[in-house]
Description:
Keywords: Cell projection, Cilium, Flagellum. It comes from Paenibacillus oryzisoli. The chain has helices at 44-57, 60-71, and strands at 2-5, 11-14, 19-24, 28-32, 37-40. By secondary structure, it is an alpha+beta fold. The protein has a three-stranded antiparallel beta sheet with strand order 3-4-5, with helices on one face. It has a two-stranded antiparallel ribbon with strand order 1-2. It starts with a strand and ends with a helix.
Amino acid sequence: xxxxxxxxxxxxxxxxxxxxxxxxxxxxxxxxxxxxxxxxxxxxxxxxxxxxxxxxxxxxxxxxxxxxxxxxx
Length: 73
């Protein structure tokens, strides 16, 4: 889960695994795999950084890298 801020200043905890698309229009709009759209104050690059950190914390990134390494064997 990652912590973000809605446009009205209220905090939001988002399941990063559900993120499908992040775009700046100029506000940052996050589209989830469910089709729901959420607009946040943080810039897209900040959201991406938070997602990467979260994925590393839960071991998702490491598992993906290891999976790719073993596919070539």
